[in-house]
């Protein structure tokens, strides 16, 4: 199996879209991620998978914390921006939740501190213990076969 076949197979799994944010020395860093999942109820744990070459990787390691903002269906542009898919700059409004930067008006915001981490190939799996969360009752932004989708 080659890399293209593997990526095609993995794209058949529909996911939500998240922005993972953290800060270090007062500077906010963020990245788009769909490699996110819940891990445990007791304690409440979530997992993000971050490429070792990603700018946010070392910052999460150093800060020991991160937030996950699960995007709503009308937040495609934010996902594209943090995935470096837009050429132009956009004005991103960060709120603070549990002293962490979050995407304002996201479907869900989850504040975490790093509980554990595991190297896995060219990524690191960061397990976060949930400090607190906020939830809205709206529709999510979805990702399937390399394209953004919405519930219909």
UniProtKB/TrEMBL annotation:
Xref: Pfam families: Flavin_Reduct
Keywords: Oxidoreductase
Domain of life, source organism: Bacteria
GO MF annotations in UniProt: FMN binding; riboflavin reductase (NADPH) activity
Keyword Cell division found: no
InterPro entries reported for this sequence: Flavin_Rdtase-like_dom, NADH-dep_flavin_reductase, Split_barrel_FMN-bd
SMART domains xrefs: Flavin_Reduct (SM00903)
Domain Flavin reductase like: 10-150
Protein name: Flavin reductase
Keyword match Oxidoreductase: yes
């Amino acid at each position: 199996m080659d890399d293209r076949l593997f990526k095609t197979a993995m794209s058949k799994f529909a996911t939500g879209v998240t922005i993972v944010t953290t800060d270090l020395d007062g500077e906010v860093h963020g990245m788009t991620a769909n490699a996110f999942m819940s891990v445990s109820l007791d304690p409440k744990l979530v997992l993000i998978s971050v490429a070792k070459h990603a700018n946010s990787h070392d910052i999460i390691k150093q800060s020991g914390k991160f937030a996950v903002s699960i995007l709503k269906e009308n937040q495609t542009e934010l996902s594209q921006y943090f995935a470096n898919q837009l050429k132009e700059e956009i004005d991103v409004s960060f709120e603070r939740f549990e002293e962490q930067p979050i995407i304002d008006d996201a479907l869900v915001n989850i504040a975490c501190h790093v509980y554990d981490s595991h190297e896995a190939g060219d990524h690191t799996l960061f397990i976060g213990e949930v400090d607190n969360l906020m939830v809205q009752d709206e529709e999510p932004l979805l990702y399937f076969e390399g394209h953004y989708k919405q519930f219909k």
